[in-house]
Amino acid sequence: MTTTTPAASTGAPPVEQVTLTIDDVEVSVPKGTLVIRAAEQMGIAIPRFCDHPLLEPVGACRQCLVEVSTPDREGNLRPMPKPQASCTLEATPGMVVRTQRTSAVADKAQHGVMELLLINHPLDCPTCDKGGECPLQNQAMSNGRPTSRFHDVKRTFPKPLAISTQILLDRDRCVLCQRCTRFSEEIAGDPFIDLQQRGVRQQIGVFDPGVLGFAGSEPAEVYRGVQPDGTPISKAEGLPAQDPAGPAGQATVDTSGRPFASYFSGNTVQICPVGALTSSAYRFRSRPFDLVSTPGIAEHDANGAAIRVDHRRGVVLRRLAGNDPAVNEEWISDKDRFAYPWQGMPDRLTVPLVRERAADGTRGELRPASWGEALEAAATGLAAARDAGGVGVLPGGRVTLEDAYAYAKFARVALGTNDVDHRARPHSAEEAEFLAHHVAGARMSVTFDDLEKAPTTLLVGFEPEDEGGIVFLRLRKGVRAHRNRVVSVAPFASRGLERLSGTLVPAAPGTEAEVLDALVPGADGVLGEAAGLLGPDAVVVVGERLATVPGAYSAALRLAERTGARLVWIPRRAGERGGVELGTLPGLLPGGRQVTDGAARVDVAAAWDVERLPETPGRDASAILAAAAAGELGGLVVGGVDPDDLADPVLAREAFASAGFLVSLEVRASAVTQLADVVLPVAPPVEKPGTFLNWEGRPRPFPQALTSTAMADHRVLDALADAMDVPLGLRTFGQVRAEIDQLGGWDGARAAAPSVAATEPPSLADGEAVLATWHLLLDAGRCQDGEAFLAGTAQRPVARVSPELAGHLGVDTGAGLTVRTERGQVTLPVVVTPMPDGVVWLPTASTGSAVRATLGVDAGAVVRVQAAALPGAARAEVGPAGGAAQPQPLTEGEER
Amino acid sequence: MSTTLSPVLSDQWDAERSWTLATYEQGRGYRALRTALGMAPADVVTAVKDSGLRGRGGAGFPTGLKWSFLPQPDGGPRYLVVNADESEPGTCKDIPLMMATPHLLVEGVAITSFAIGCTHAFIYVRGEVLHVYRRLLRAVEEAYAAGHLGKNIHGSGFDLDVTVHAGAGAYICGEETALLDSLEGRRGQPRLKPPFPAVAGLYARPTVVNNVESIASVPSIIDRGVDWFRSMGTEKSAGFGIFSLSGHVERPGQYEAPLGITLRELLDMAGGVRGGHELKFWTPGGSSTPLFTAEHLDVPLDYESVGAAGSMLGTRALQIFDDSTCVVRAITRWAEFYAHESCGKCTPCREGTYWLKQILARIEHGRGTMEDLDTLLDVCDNILGRAFCALGDGATSTITSGIALFREEFEAHITGGACPFDPVASAKFDYTPRNRRADVHALSGVAAGTVGA
């Protein structure tokens, strides 16, 4: 349970102080402080359930009753006639509060409420997940009666109710504190559960006509469990028509009438003060007192959210949100919370593997080898490759600062090349220039706090919920608390943008640069409106997707200069920002030093104790792959890279196949492993200490959680360099940290801003459309492997088409659509979405919609579209079971 | 007999088709509205303040003072909401009033709205009383047609729309903030105060919430004057009110009389307690008020005197019980009502009423223990003043006062192993007790054990 008050930020005007007395001790607190919080500051714990510092007070549980007297106008102390809920009562000057420590009335009131809370509670602590870390259990011990006087019949409920494949609800354990419903409404904005019924029958639930007792409605569906793969054991009955864009698993319907899908639902499990909400992943798996907890940093996105890794005997059993008011407050996304099994999958690489090639280049079988043999083989092969055209280095976007530094140094020192690029995704030279000019060396120029406070935030090429995770929560907090405005340049208003009460500036993919340049005050319609909101206090957020739009970064820089708004780049992956800072880019050395800057090179060469560094900027990732495929490069060193994430997966596979020598540093066997000559296993984040640099540029260090023999990338690279007779001195974590610190930042010249012209949008022939695409937060990414319960809560992949295009093609929501290129095709159910005409949207990497792998194109490309029959299975999932072929309009939800 | 009836609100109840506009206008109908429209709104507020009219919904808060709590107009809307969600067991005054003379309420709404600067008023009617809802709808329709509502009422430039809203049948929606939530389309549960409705009520705008009888009293004050109104009742409880007599009384019904009348006087007018029986206990203000006995027959029924005697005037719902009544049985029925109507928001009321109901059911059926009586009192103590709103407090009133007054009767149930009373004897009509086994089964809570799906 959390009992902190966010510290007042510095620089704010001094807050008026209020002096009151709690348990005979005088205390001064800022005006507006709740009594329960003031008591906390003095170390007095008042028991509570509904109170939560990040949620609005509700005063429902009545556990925190205290005795209060206040001075009247003449200054005479007047006792309030009833005990007061300290969680809703603001401290006032001269107030005298007596808690259970000094007041028999307060103590009896608390004991009374606790007894009442327990009369209908099942008291099943021995089998409850929460047992051992349960506020109800703990406070029943500290503030409850030793025995119960209740001899009558308890209220019970069938249990558990599956709210989604991941979230289960045991209503009998619930104390109706409403933390979960308030979180859903106030924080995440996806109120999937709410109170229903009244009196003792009052219960938390999904929007369920059966429980609500609507005439003719089906009874509530009872959860009967799922197979380990997430398949429900019994068929869903009485479910309303499914929204094709709803979640893939068996999900109930939220209060908006849509099948429930929330990216943040796991937080409700954590803040539930009893065992009412549990997660399928952890249910019945462990006892809290058997767990070892290690603080960590979530590795799935660039936010660097604080987490807590709970493990037992070397196995991670769950992850919880950590409390970092500056970054994630107390919330994390479900991906950060539940997507941890990938680190311990059966395909984990545990020993080095080597492969011999025949004289004609035919690859033999991979076989386990000792570290000595493998490093020797790799060193020999790389040395030869270095001399035969050079070696390219692709670290991937998920490495820590320390590992990124090692890759950057290894490439320059051991391989003598600037051919290093961590961007395992579509990228561009313009983006590299933008990063060198605006991002590298500019840490903490925009923070989470700035996002919350900025009156206007303009999002470009950035989907706040899918690509931002908790960035979305912070934006929403600002929208709710300060009436901030969020404007998004995107093809359509996503559900995330709707929940930010955001304004859409519609832009077909590829036209973002044009739209940004058109944001001038006085422009027509929404363009002028958006431009009017942009001033020096505004923040412009650009996403990594803009790399696919020529001129977009240039236009964003122009916009920032024009309006004075601050510009921040928020990438998706955890290692991207660190890579920019630590020099895993072809034109950048650590600290944002430019390769082309002689002084910078000298500086780094001196620190690295080498004579000279390669002088010309290297190839970027696409060029490295193209060169390898063409046989121009002698070899490749590849970190955690999935070829299907790259702009051209076919070219990538070709490059891996054609590379004269391929070294793979991987956690799990991958597509690269299959072609590698030497595979060197490395540790996942949970098995090594490290630091992620989040998008703010804030270092997010984390310790090693699990005991492991696996080595971090930097240590493997150090050993490899040793074997190549080029010592790097990066063997220990401490050595790496010391060297990074010693090298420090760079106060020399920064790169010039890119100036790339926008391209004309393509003209479309009949049956053609422009592709829009981005990653959904939960998709088919490899780091979500092994967690079927989480996968069940992912959005179902759909193709979105503009109404005009849908009409032209003769498809409607629920029908099928095929999107085709010369390379392949994707067929998905359609959801007609208000969008610029001629646009079709696909999720980038969801099941059945692997855009780059299947279609070989990216956003902005021209694709062919046509109506299609859906495969039988897909149709059955989309349509209501046994009902009409078309999903029924969910009028209930629309009215809300 | 010192006090007689003072029919004002009920004056026209016996008129032919009393609910029609024509009948209403044959009397003093809508005269007060015209008078009020000729006054400054502030003067109307002052008149009501000076009259000493206190809220007739139970709490007795001065009505004019409540109106004056509204903040200064800021150009935005402000609302009048009439609480017509009469649901307290025993209370039967607003519903007959709206049934017989709905126009009296509509006129009061118009005058009040004019006084407080409201252009859209709401009447929240209890959903079960469909016939009353229809009459109100018709009355509002007639009033619009006659120009008493709508745009530029009687050329005064004052606009008023009135919306009649039917609730869905929840006692808690008589609590003013729960009523506002319900009116807004949310779950009817009480709101956290502050902010109070006068500052942020309906749709977060300044709002006055008044009881039907309070609003219906306003036209007479404007029409006949403050002095006339103050000539009735007592100094601190001025005016008249409807006293609803029910139960073991020869002529039950609504008796409109000046505040400060006694039950003895009322019983005289009502023909006394049921023939052949003696008064055993009674509620002065409905089921949420502590019980009185024959000892209290001469307590003046005004806010101060009833309070001083240990109960509350409440809604003047006088439920009369004679010596044939089992007090345990009566209290158990009330406890069941509160358990059924608890909204569930706060722990003491939600869980406490559920527990009280079960203990009382056991005692009633002779399966209680002496320890249960202490538990009952202690659970009541843990609810009273600990709940979020007054519903929980009300649930304990009859239990604590009942045990204080009739402890031996509770103990007789326990020691005797059964109820010593014959339920048929207390019935005023042909009554066959339900099958005893099913009764016990239902009341012991077994049936209530598993709820929901």
Structure report:
The complex is a heterodimer of chains A (896) and B (453). Chain A has five domains: 17-122 and 136-143, Roll (Ubiquitin-like (UB roll)); 161-344, no CATH class; 364-425 and 577-682 and 708-743, 3-Layer(aba) Sandwich (Rossmann fold); 442-571, Dimethylsulfoxide Reductase, domain 2 (3-Layer(aba) Sandwich), CATH 3.40.228.10; 768-895, Barwin-like endoglucanases (Beta Barrel). Chain A is an alpha/beta fold and 896 residues long. In chain A, strands 1, 2, 3, 4, 5 and 6 form a six-stranded mixed sheet that branches. In chain A, strands 16-15-27-26-25-17 form a six-stranded mixed sheet, sandwiched between helices. Chain A has a six-stranded mixed beta barrel with strand order 30-34-31-33-32-37. Chain B has three domains: 21-230, Rossmann fold (3-Layer(aba) Sandwich), CATH 3.40.50.11540; 240-322, Ubiquitin-like (UB roll); 327-443, NADH-ubiquinone oxidoreductase 51kDa subunit, iron-sulphur binding domain (de novo design (two linked rop proteins), Up-down Bundle). In chain B, 43% of the residues lie in helices and 11% in strands. Chain B contains 19 helices and nine strands. In chain B, the strands form two sheets. Chain B has a five-stranded mixed sheet, with no helix packed on it. Chain B has a four-stranded parallel sheet with strand order 3-2-1-4, sandwiched between helices. The chains are: A alpha/beta (896), B alpha/beta (453). At the A-B interface, helix 2 of A face helix 14, helix 15 and helix 16 of B.
